[in-house]
Amino acid sequence: MLIRKKSDIRPSEITSPEHYAQRRTILKAAAALGIGAIASGPAAALVRPAGKGTPIPDIVDKKYGRGLKLTSYDDVTSYNNFYEFGTDKSDPAKYAHTLKTRPWSIVVDGECEAPGEIGIEDVLGGFAQEERIYR
Fold first, then answer.
1. Of 85, 122, 127, 116, which Cα lies nearest the Cα of 103?
2. 104 with 120: CB under 8 angstroms?
3. What pTM was computed for the model?
4. Which terminus of the chain is more solvent-facing, meaning fewer CB atoms within 10 Å of its CB: N or C?
């Protein structure tokens, strides 16, 4: 049996009448957001990038991405979200040439069984490189 105390808060004191009256508006907005999210999937599939890319030599051709039109080379090499070079969208295109990718090494240290330094060539040499196109 539920015994209420005088100190219990009434439901009408928790939610203001103005907010309670807007509950249907909130539900309609949530439903519209859900329908918009579901409908945007097929619409996004219709977008096609323009241009033709440059083939990468010595790459194993796999089935991944076959038949897709490639994004233009200028777009691929100039617009991205890598903050290592700066916070502006064009910063990576401006500053990427300063990154030295060779020689690189990976250092394994701390509490581990086999600490040491591994060259990037040793890491990459164990795997065949293949081209994959992600959308």
1. 122
2. yes
3. 0.31
4. N
